[in-house]
Write a structure and sequence with these properties.
alpha+beta, 354 residues, Tumour Suppressor Smad4, globular, DNA polymerase, domain 1
C-alpha cells in the first residue's frame, strides 16, 4: 500500500488503508464510489457524512486525522511540477541486462507488446525464458499513467521492490532463484491480520510452506534466517524480510545483491494492470528494463556504453546506480555516494550480470 504516494493509490490500496485503520466496514462504500488515491485526498467531512454515509463522529475524526497525515507525507516536490512536466508523451525502457542490453524501447500513447515472436510484438526479446507474447504496456489518459500487464507468460513479469510493499492474498515475489506466493492470511474478528502463510512457488523453495506471525522473519542463505534456503545460489546471506507494521504484513529487500521482485501474475494467467513509474525496473526473462524519460537517452536503438568503468578505467562496469541507472564497477562504487556521471545521490546499488 505504501509503495507509492497516496495520491497514486488504486481503489484496492484505499481499501487496504481503511482496513489498516480498523474501519473495514466502510470499504464497500468507498469501492462502490470508486474512491482512489486522488479522490481520497480531496475528501471533506461533508463528503464523509453525505456521500460515504459515515454517521459515527469518532470514525469521521479518525479518518480525517489520518487523511491529514497522508497529505503531510506527500512528496514535497510533487506540487513543484507543472501540468506539462507531468504529461507523458512517451516513455523509454532502457535494457540494462540481458540479450538486448543497451537497447532502448520507446513506448508512446498507442502502447506496445513485448515478447519472443517478431511477428506479433512491437518489441522482441529473443530468449528462451520469454514467451511468444509476454506482456503489454498501454497508456491510460484518464490517470496519465503507463500500465503494464502480463498476458499469460510462462516465466512471469516482475517489477523490482524498491520500497516495502504490503502483502495480500496471492501476492507473489522473488528472492534469488526462489519465488513465493502468499497462500493464506489469518485475520482477527476486527479484520487485522495476525498470521501469514508463504509457499514456495518456483525454484529451490518450491512447495515449501512457511508460517510467520507478527514477529515476521528474514529470508537468506545463512542458517540464522527463519526462512533459510542454502541451495539458492542467487540468494544473499540475508536477502529480504517480512514484517508486521501498521496492522499489515509487508515485504522488503534488505540490501541484497540480486534484489527482490514482485511477480505480477502466476504462470499462464493474465495479470491486473500495474502502473509503472520513472526509475522502476522491470524484469522479463533475464532482461532487466529501466523506465526513463525520453530525454535521458539520445539513441533509441542502441546505447554505446563503455566496456570499462569510468572511474578506474580498468574493471568491467557491473553495478548499476539507483535511481539514475549509470554503470560502474562494484569496487569503485563501494566508496561513492553520488553518481560520477550525473551527480545524483545513490540510494541503492544493483549488481548486473551478462
Amino acid at each position: 500500500m505504501e509503495s507509492c504516494s497516496a495520491s497514486k493509490w488504486t481503489i484496492d490500496q484505499v481499501s487496504d488503508w481503511l482496513r489498516s485503520l480498523e474501519l473495514p466496514q466502510y470499504r464497500a462504500k468507498f469501492e462502490e464510489l470508486g474512491i482512489d488515491g486522488g479522490l481520497l485526498l480531496q475528501i471533506t467531512e461533508n463528503d464523509l457524512i453525505n456521500d460515504l454515509q459515515i454517521s459515527i463522529r469518532l470514525h469521521r475524526h479518525k479518518l480525517l486525522e489520518s487523511l491529514k497525515k497522508l497529505k503531510e507525507e506527500q512528496p514535497k516536490n510533487e506540487s513543484e511540477f507543472s501540468d506539462s512536466d507531468c504529461d507523458w508523451s512517451s516513455m523509454l525502457l532502457k535494457a540494462i541486462e540481458g540479450q538486448c542490453k543497451y537497447k532502448v524501447f520507446e513506448i508512446t500513447h498507442t502502447g506496445a507488446t513485448i515478447g519472443r515472436n517478431s511477428g506479433s510484438n512491437n518489441y522482441v526479446i529473443n530468449e528462451s525464458f520469454v514467451s511468444r507474447k509476454h506482456c503489454e504496456i498501454k497508456y491510460n489518459a484518464g490517470t496519465n499513467q503507463f500500465l503494464i500487464r502480463d498476458v499469460g507468460s510462462t516465466t512471469g513479469t516482475f517489477i523490482m521492490i524498491s520500497k516495502k510493499q504490503q502483502l495480500e492474498q496471492n501476492f507473489m515475489f522473488q528472492m534469488g532463484l526462489s519465488e513465493f506466493r502468499v497462500t493464506n492470511i489469518k485475520y482477527t474478528p476486527f479484520g487485522i491480520p495476525f498470521e501469514v502463510t508463504i509457499t514456495g512457488y518456483e525454484g529451490p523453495a518450491r512447495d515449501t510452506e512457511y508460517i510467520l506471525d507478527k514477529n515476521g522473519g528474514t529470508f537468506g542463505r545463512d542458517i540464522e534466517n527463519p526462512i533459510t534456503i542454502p541451495d539458492d545460489s542467487q540468494l544473499s546471506a540475508k536477502h529480504g524480510r517480512i514484517f508486521f507494521e501498521n496492522n499489515g504484513f509487508y515485504v522488503e529487500d534488505t540490501g541484497s545483491t540480486n534484489k527482490t521482485w514482485r511477480r505480477i501474475s502466476p504462470e499462464g494467467e493474465l495479470s491486473k494492470e500495474f502502473p509503472i513509474y520513472i526509475d522502476d525496473f522491470i524484469k522479463i526473462g533475464s532482461t532487466i528494463l529501466q523506465v526513463t524519460f525520453p530525454e535521458e537517452c539520445e539513441d533509441k536503438e542502441n546505447i554505446a556504453l563503455p566496456t570499462e568503468c569510468k572511474v578506474c578505467l580498468v574493471a568491467e562496469p557491473n553495478t548499476l546506480c539507483y535511481p539514475c541507472g549509470h554503470l560502474f564497477c562494484s569496487d569503485c562504487l563501494k566508496i561513492i555516494t553520488k553518481c560520477p556521471t550525473c551527480s545524483k545521490e545513490i540510494s541503492d546499488k544493483v549488481k548486473v550480470f551478462k
